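Per-record layout

source: Bacillus cereus VD184
name: CAAX amino protease
length: 129
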Amino acid sequence: MLLRGEAFHNKDKIQRAKIGLQLFLSILTITSIILNVLVMITKSMPLIVVYMFTPAFSSILTRIILKEGFKDVSFSLGNLKILKGIGFALLIPMIICGITYSIAWFSGLVRFQPPQGGMLEPIYNILGF
């Protein structure tokens, strides 16, 4: 059974979590829109890398604004469970892209076009692409 003080404390924690989530999503949406428009206008590849870090930037900025600190965030990589999760997080998008692109290429919907220039062009030439 929860005591009155504990119930109030839980409601306060839930309310703070909701505010934090709303702030995070607001910052994420605004920065994503701005960077997305900049990438479309400038076609700058380095901006795409910056765009990929918008969730991390939004999270850090939210914690700074709400004065939450970072002590409750765990970055422990020694746990096997965490390493498996990181492995799956890297592997699953590659599998999905591999299946999707393979279907498109082998069905003839699109033709594989290697990018022109760059350091991989000699490898594409050796492979006959």
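summary: Residues 79-129 form one domain. The chain has five helices and no strands.
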